[in-house]
Amino acid sequence: MNKKTIENIFKATQTELKSALETYLTGGGREILSQDGFLYSKGTHPVLLVAHMDTVHKESPKTILYSKDGNTIMSLEGIGGDDRCGIIMILEILQKYDCSVVFLEDEEIGCVGARKFCKSGIELGDINYAVEFDRKGGNDYVFYKDYNKDFENHIKKFGFVKATGTCSDISHIAPTFKIEAVNISCGYYCPHCWYEYVKLDEMYDIIERATKMIGAKTEKFDYAEPQYSKSVVTPKITYFDDNYYQTSFYDKTWYHDSVPPKKEDPIWLAPDQVILIVGMEQVKFDKIYMDSSGKIYKDKELKNEIKNGYLIGTKYHYTQSYWSVTRDYPKQTYKLESKDDCGKKNPYYVDYSQALLWVDGEEKEFDRVFIDSSNTIYKDIWLKQKYEGAKLVSIIDGGFLDYNDIAEFYPEQTYILTNNGGKKK
Q1: Residue 108 Cα distances to 6, 56, 62, 318, angstroms
Q2: What is the DSSP string of 11-74?
Q3: Which of 66, 274, 380, 409 is 20 to 30 A off residue 337, Cα-Cα?
């Protein structure tokens, strides 16, 4: 791909890029399906390629700056390597293999395009696996909830190294379509920052290796559902005062040294702090409120819940949980006037980084849940809202976690109930 085309991809708005990709694919004789949220084209090669068309930056690059050797690029407006690199890589791979491909919109505000794609009713046909190109660095691969050992061995053959990640578009696509999926590095660094940069030589090295990987003949890698057993052998994790990791896969991130919140009280938030997404649409608001279970409300009394709502930070563009907003805006917490003591002592909290939540055999999304000594699981720290038929499963080894397990591995997470909710023991 020539320099001019690469620059045009980085400089385009999401709308402009989607239109250009439509023109490019149809001009190459491919049939496309362009809908709100995504652009999809079915191929003959049994691999699905995935990337997103949006970036976090408010304006497109006006000028692209090059290092002296020409291998590194950036822009004062933000280069948008996340995920324009993924777009470039897929277009290069399509030159050799007629893969199925989906280009997605609005990944940065909650994988909106991926959610719409999953609900579109599209049949993918015979796909052996999916590859997303939406990972920083020059040599990583990341799995999320699905994991097939044979698929991992296939990826390793081409020199990629396992890393950890939180979420991307394939987090939704893989479980919906029951296909194995991996996210691979694209050669960009410092994502979500104005000083983000792209190492073009690394990007093209990954293109070469990924093309060989995709071209290698394989059978379909079966989608691997999480496997669970009762045995629990979990290494102890050291925490700060709340659920801020001192030793975990989040180590060395931008919030590692931040001051943890001290309260479990509700918090209010303003439009310049978070984006409110309800369903798949952005909703305007003047002020909203979040309780300690992560639920969002229109009113301070927490009576009018905003159903199917979630928050995206305006500063870092990550999905916001209770602990993240109390970290960023600790002065906005407040106490509810009265809550009855439920009479149960010493519950523990468990957050989404420690366990999966299964309710009646189905996985449920959550930020934080609470467990009492009878192994009943609750949505709220006051132990009022039960999860009936719920179980906690360790993300480390897949074992079930009961009250005694939590007490052993996370003793710092025990709480005493008071009129205003939980208090650190």
Answers
A1: 21, 6, 21, 7
A2: HS-HHHHHHHHHHHHHHTT---EEETTEEEE--SEEEEEEEE---S-SS--SS-EE-TTS-EEE
A3: 274
> In terms of residue numbers, what domain contains 295?
267-332
Furthest CA-CA distance within the chain: 69
Tell me if residue 287 falls in helix, strand or coil: coil
Query: For 308, which DSSP code?
Result: T
Which strand (E) or helix (H) includes residue 208? Answer: helix 200-215
- Asked if residue 356 belongs to a domain, the reply is yes
Query: For the residues 201-213, what does the mean pLDDT come to?
Result: 97
- Measured distance CA(356)–CA(136) in Å, rounded: 26
Length of the chain: 425
**The tokens of 338 are what?**
């009265």
Residues 346 and 385 in one domain: yes
What values do phi and psi take at 172, rounded to 5?
-95, -40
**Which residues 6+ apart lie within 8 Å of 23 measured at CB?**
none
Q: Write out pLDDT tens, residues 213-247.
A: 999 999 999 998 754 433 333 333 332 222 222 22
Average pLDDT across the chain, whole number: 83
288 strand-pairing partners: 269
Digit-coded pLDDT (tens) for 11-70:
999 999 999 999 999 999 999 999 999 999 999 999 999 999 999 888 899 999 999 999
CATH value at residue 205: 3.40.630.10
Residue with tokens 């009492």: 372
User: Are 38 and 73 in a shared domain?
Assistant: yes
